[in-house]
Amino acid sequence: MSGKTVRLGAGMAFWGDRVQPAAEMIERADIDYLCCDHLAELTMSILAKQRAKNPEAGYTRDLIDLLRGALPVAVRKGVKIISNAGGANPRAAGERVLELCKELGLSGVRVAVVTGDDIEGDIDRLMDDGVSFTNLDTGAELVTVRERLTHAAVYTGSEGIVEALRLGADVVICGRVTDIALYLGPLIHEFGWASDDWQRLGMATVVAHAIECGGQATGGLYAADWQGVDGLEDLGYPIAEVREDGTAVLTKTPGTGGRVDIGTVSEQLVYEILDPGNYLTADVTADFTQVRLEEVGPDRVLITGGTGKPRPDTLKVNMGYRAGFVGEIVFTYSWPDAPAKARRGIEFLKNRLAAADFRCSAEIVEYLGHTSMFQGRVPPPTDPELPEVVVRYAARCPDAEQARKVFTESVPLYNNGPAGVAGVGTRPPLKELYAIWSCLIPREHVSQSVELLEV
Amino acid sequence: MRVVDLAHGRSGDKGDICNVGLVAYDDAGYQILLREVTEQRVAEHYGDLVTGTVTRYELPGIRSLNFVLTGALDGGGTMSLRSDHLGKVMYAWLLRMEIGDGAIADD
After folding, report:
1. CA–CA distance, A55 with A50 (Å, rounded to integer)
2. Do A270 and B66 lie within an 8 Å CB cutoff?
3. pLDDT (0 to 100) of residue B107
4. Cα–Cα separations (whole angstroms), residue A222 to A228, A232, A261
5. Is A178 within 8 Å of A315 (Cβ atoms)?
6. Touching B: A residues 63-102, CB under 8 Å
C-alpha cells in the first residue's frame, strides 16, 4: 500500500519506566511522534498528594529525565513529543520543561499544556447541575467519601492534543488524557480524520493499545517463548507505522533487544481489556474482535481488522480517596519445623494484636514461595524439612495508629516466639491506601483547554 | 493435558477486575480452548480467588480468549493486600488448568 505513513513511537508505559528507549528510538528510528504514557490509577492520587504539599509539584518527574535525553535529538530531527506526565499539575510540568529547554540551550521550542481533566474543584457545582458521580462498581453515592477525596480526573480524549499540534506545539504536556488519546491525537492531526470516523479511530485504537505498554509488546513479560527473547536488558520499545486507513506495521527501534512477532503482539492485545467488542475510550468505542496479525518481515507485524462504533456519551472519571493504612510484616523461620513455626508465629501475632484492641477491615497471611500468588488454591507449606519458610501478614487498617500495631506486636517474636526467626526487626514504612472511585460524567460538562508556552 | 500445552497468556487489572487473556499457539489448539475452557470451568478453577463473575470473550483473528474476572483483586490494585495486587500472574493459574481427557474440574 502506498501513501502517507505516520510513525508513532511508544516512549514510556508508566511512571518509573526506563527513560532510555525514548532517546534511542528518536536517534535510530526516524519516528514522527514520541507518545509517552506516565499514568496509572494510583499515580494520580500520589501526584495529587504531592501537589497538595507543594503547588509546583504534581507531575511525574521522570518527564524531565526522559526529555533531558530525548529532547535535544527530537528538536534536531523534528520529532514531536506527546505526554500525559502533567498528571495533577500539567501547567507546572510545562513550566519545568521550559526551564529544561533553557538548561539544554534549546530555543524556539513550543510547549503546549492541555488541561480540563481535573474537575476536583467543580464537583459541588457539577452535583448541583445534576451529575450524580454514582460509583460504577458499587452504586454508592459520592457523599459517602466526599470529605476524603484527593483528586478527580476525567479520562479525556484527543481533542486537546489535536488542537495543540495544530497550534504548532513541539512538546504536548497533558493531564489525565487516555493512553489511547496520546496516539490518536497525532494521527487525527496528520490524517485529518473526522471525529466520527469510527472505523479509522477504532482501528487506530487497536494499534495504540498494542504499543502503549512499551516493552510489553516487544518481548517484555512474554509468557510463551520467554527464553527465546534476547536482549531483555536493552529492550527496544515499539513503533507503529500507521497508514491513512488506520492499519499499521508494528516494529521496534533497530539494534535493540527483544522482538516483535505475532506472539508478542497478541499477548499485548489481550492485556487489560474487558469486552473486546466494546473497548470504551473517550474518542471511540473500539472493536478488537476481528483483529488480525501477519508477520511481514523481521520484527515487523502488520495489524488489521480493528474497527469502531460511536464513542460513549459519558466520560469516565477516576477519583481517589483516602482509605486508611496497611500494616504489614514479613518474617522468616528456619529448619527444623519451619512451616509449623511460621504458623505459630502468625498465631502469636494475631493473639498479641487481639490483646492490643487491634482493628482492621481485612487481613491476609501469605506463605511466600507457596501461597502468595494463588491464595487459597494451593496449600500452605507443611514439610518439616524445608530449609526456610517466609510468611507475610498484612491488614487494612482504618488509621496509621492501628497499622503501626502490626509492627510493634510482631517485634516480641524476636525473643518470645518460636526459635529460628529472622527479619522481624526492621520497621517497614507505613503505606497509606487510596481507594479509587470510578464514575461517569456526561461529556458536555468537560472541555479541554490548550495553552502554548514558548522558550 | 493442561492449558499451558496449547496457549500462552497475560493478565492485568482494571480496578477490582482482573482480565486473563489466553493466546493459542495454533488453530487446532484454539478450537480445543473454545470447547474446554468455559466460563464455568474457569470460575471453578479460580475458586475463592475470584469472588464475582467470569465472562469469556473471543478474538478469533488472533486465536485468543479473554476472560474478565470481577471481584478478583481483593478490592483492586490500590487496595489489595495480595502480593500480586495487580493480577499480573493470574494468567499463570489458568495455564495450569487440566483440560481434555482426565481433566479434573477443580484441579
Report:
1. 8
2. yes
3. 43
4. 10, 10, 11
5. no
6. none
Q: Which three cell numbers stand for residue A357?
A: 484492641
Residues with Cβ within 8 Å of residue A50, at least 6 apart in sequence = A57, A58, A88
Q: Which amino acid is at A198?
A: W
SS (H, E, C) B30-59: HHHHHHHCCHHHHHHHHHHHCCCCEEEEEE
Residue A388: its H or E element: strand A388-397
pLDDT at A41: 84
From CA A2, how far away is CA A439, in angstroms rounded?
43
- pLDDT of res. A428: 82
Using CB atoms and an 8 Å cut-off, which of residues 279-318 of chain A contact chain B?
A: 288-293, 305
Q: Which H/E stretch holds residue A42?
A: helix A41-53
Strand blocks (E) in A179-247:
238-243
CA distances from A315 to A125, A237, A275, A311, A318 (A): 17, 30, 17, 9, 10
**In this complex, which of A41, A274, A362 lies closest to B19 when CB atoms are compared?**
A274
Q: Are B96 and B4 in contact (CB under 8 A)?
A: yes
pLDDT for B106 equals: 44
Task: Decide if B9 and A223 are in contact by the 8 Å CB cutoff.
Answer: yes
Which runs of E-coded beta strand occur in A206-313? 238-243, 248-252, 279-280, 285-287, 292-297, 300-304, 307-309
Find which of B11, B42, B78 to mutate to test the A interface (most A CBs within 10 Å of its CB): B78
Closest partner residue to A376 among B16, B49, B59, by Cβ?
Answer: B49
The reply to whether residue A377 touches residue B19, judged by beta carbons under 8 angstroms, is: no
Unique residue bearing C-alpha cell 461517569: A440
Collapsed DSSP state (helix, strand, coil) of residue A249: strand
Q: How confident is the model at residue B37 (pLDDT cuts 50, 70, 90)?
A: very high
Residue A42, pLDDT score: 84
Q: Residue B104 pLDDT > 70, yes or no? A: no
Q: pLDDT for A345-363, tens place per residue?
A: 999 999 999 999 999 999 9
Give residue-wise pLDDT tens across range B4-23.
999 999 999 999 999 999 99
Residue ranges of chain A whose pLDDT lies below 70 = 1-2, 455
**Cβ separation B21–A270 shorter than 8 A:** yes
Judge whether A42 and B77 are in contact, CB under 8 Å: yes
What is the C-alpha separation between A311 and A283, in angstroms, rounded? 6
Q: Do B74 and A268 touch (CB under 8 A)?
A: no
* Residue B86 clears pLDDT 70, i.e. is over it: yes
